Amino acid sequence: MTDLSIEDFATWVGEACEVAVDETALPMTLAAVEPLDGSPRETGGFRLEFLGPPEPILGQAIVTVRRPAFDREIFMVPIASGPDGTRYEAVFY
Question: Is 90 a domain residue?
Answer without folding.
Answer: no
